[in-house]
């Protein structure tokens, strides 16, 4: 219990202290006109209140990640707490804040455009591929995972495929609506359900099982995984949302188009990632407390983590309130799935230069994406999750390197993004070399040595190109002078 409460206290302290430092290092300008005001189009660029922006950001980034990931991460034991707390404060929240604010300073640009500007135009194509791959996988995972949860609550005659179809219809309608109608009206209610259900799970866990919640002690630092799966690098991919997630780099720019003052950034971007870390801590603690490793592993294998969500909710809250808690969990992937499709539409449209100013053009981009996702729902969830995990963390690395280059060119402390970026880059290289979805080398000496060499080579290339880029800067370079919103330039 002390570790759970202490971890949550550290997350809040991280927001108050380190979050403030990150904000100071970025150097906000509260008087700067934001894209929401200057580029208002009534669809994607719409000024919204700080509260609505924050809850939309939380629901956009959360999905089932901060629940399913910690449930699977609980197999490793209390060591999972370390990654959630440290990862969230020093990597994930910094990642979300920097991408959101850099996007805000660049007319609400998405990650591929930012990578093109700060890392070079050839990188844009690679980042576009990764961003689109990640979002189509996220969108599909966030169709199948809520469908499984709903299927457990509904009568047998409402078959899984019908539920999946209904979710797609909801996504399609919401994707083509203006953001303040699709998200601004519904998400505050979704957010209330999520927050209340999470608090209920946490209080019930502390009151009823506080004495048995595993603590982080020297003996508990060992790997508890019943299958002996190694902590590095697998844990860092298993728990992504709740610690560090590249998916968030595709969501923060969407909210950067609705923020009306740069002062809101720390609460909206950094703060909501901290909130996601709290959710992750509660679900990891609940999974470790209520089930031994073998039982937890069997339930995950038998029915994805959705079976664990059901059992935790009913065991802690009973039938009625447990059902409400499950509804709170269902809210997360529904909101993130919708946001994934919306981001995917805008990224594809930007890449193909298809202006989204008529319903015909919106549907021309949207419909093919939904058809691809429908086909992917027939693929095994666990296989999708593995590909999602790797693409997700590669995207996080790209976002952290974009942020590093931004800070480096402006002469600010770039180590705050460079250190977590290099760490996760190494983990990504090890993962793709070792795992069945990659080169199948296994986790041996050869893999670690080869990953070290490849990571070092990429870091040297990144460093050299950055120095060259900085040496060629002129005082009026766009890399030094963030874009003013288009309609303000020249006034």
Automatic annotation (TrEMBL):
It is a multi-pass membrane protein. It is found in: Cell membrane. The keyword Methyltransferase does not apply. InterPro entries: CstA, CstA_N. The keyword Cell membrane applies. Keywords: Cell membrane, Membrane, Transmembrane, Transmembrane helix. One of its GO terms (cellular component) is plasma membrane. Pfam families: CstA. Coiled coil: none annotated. One of its GO terms (biological process) is cellular response to starvation. The chain crosses the membrane at residues 6-22, 58-76, 82-104, 125-145, 157-177, 189-211, 231-249, 269-291, 314-341, 362-381, 387-408, 415-434, 446-463. Residues 5-150, 163-293 form the CstA N-terminal domain. Belongs to the peptide transporter carbon starvation (CstA) (TC 2.A.114) family. This is CstA N-terminal domain-containing protein. It comes from Vagococcus lutrae LBD1. The lineage of its organism: Bacteria, Bacillati, Bacillota, Bacilli, Lactobacillales.
């Amino acid at each position: 219990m002390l570790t759970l409460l202490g971890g949550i206290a550290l997350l809040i302290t991280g927001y108050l202290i380190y979050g403030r430092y990150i904000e100071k290092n970025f150097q906000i300008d509260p008087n700067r006109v934001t894209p929401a005001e200057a580029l208002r189009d009534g669809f994607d660029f719409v000024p919204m209140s700080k509260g609505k922006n924050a809850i939309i950001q939380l629901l956009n980034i959360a999905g089932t990640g901060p629940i399913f990931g910690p449930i699977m991460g609980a197999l490793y034991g209390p060591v999972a707490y370390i990654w959630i707390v440290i990862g969230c404060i020093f990597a994930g929240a910094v990642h979300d804040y920097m991408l959101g604010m850099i996007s805000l300073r660049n007319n609400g640009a998405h990650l591929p455009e930012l990578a093109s500007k700060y890392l070079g135009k050839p990188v844009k194509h690679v980042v576009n591929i990764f961003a689109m791959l990640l979002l189509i996988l996220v969108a599909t995972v966030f169709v199948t995972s809520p469908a499984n949860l709903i299927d457990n609550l509904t009568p047998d005659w409402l078959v899984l495929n019908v539920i999946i179809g209904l979710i797609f219809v909801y996504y399609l309608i919401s994707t083509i609506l203006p953001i303040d109608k699709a998200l601004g009206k519904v998400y505050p209610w979704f957010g209330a359900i999520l927050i209340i259900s999470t608090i209920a799970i946490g209080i019930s866990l502390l009151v009823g099982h506080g004495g048995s919640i595993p603590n982080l002690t020297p003996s508990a630092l060992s790997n508890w995984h019943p299958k002996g799966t190694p902590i590095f690098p697998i844990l860092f991919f298993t728990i992504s949302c709740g610690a560090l997630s590249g998916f968030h780099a595709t969501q923060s720019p969407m909210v950067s188009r609705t923020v009306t003052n740069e002062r809101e950034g720390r609460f909206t971007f950094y703060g909501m990632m901290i909130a996601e870390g709290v959710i992750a801590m509660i679900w990891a603690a609940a999974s470790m407390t209520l089930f031994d490793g073998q039982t937890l592993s069997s339930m995950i294998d038998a029915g994805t983590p959705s079976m664990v969500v059901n059992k935790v909710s009913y065991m802690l809250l009973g039938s009625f309130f447990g059902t409400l808690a499950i509804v709170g969990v269902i809210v997360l992937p529904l909101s993130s799935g919708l946001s994934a499709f919306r981001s995917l539409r805008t990224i594809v449209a930007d890449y193909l230069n298809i202006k989204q100013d008529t319903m015909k053009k919106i549907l021309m981009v949207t419909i093919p994406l939904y058809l691809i996702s429908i086909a992917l729902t027939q693929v095994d969830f666990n296989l999708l999750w593995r590909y999602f995990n790797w693409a997700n963390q590669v995207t996080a690395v790209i976002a952290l390197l974009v942020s590093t280059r931004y800070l480096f060119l402006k002469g600010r402390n770039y180590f705050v993004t460079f250190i977590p970026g290099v760490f996760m880059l190494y983990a990504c290289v090890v993962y793709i070399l070792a795992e069945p979805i990659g080169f199948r080398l296994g986790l041996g000496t050869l893999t670690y040595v080869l990953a070290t060499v490849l990571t070092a080579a990429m870091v040297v290339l990144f460093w050299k190109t950055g120095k060259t880029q900085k040496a060629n800067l002129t005082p009026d370079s766009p890399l030094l002078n963030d874009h003013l919103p288009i309609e303000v330039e020249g006034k």
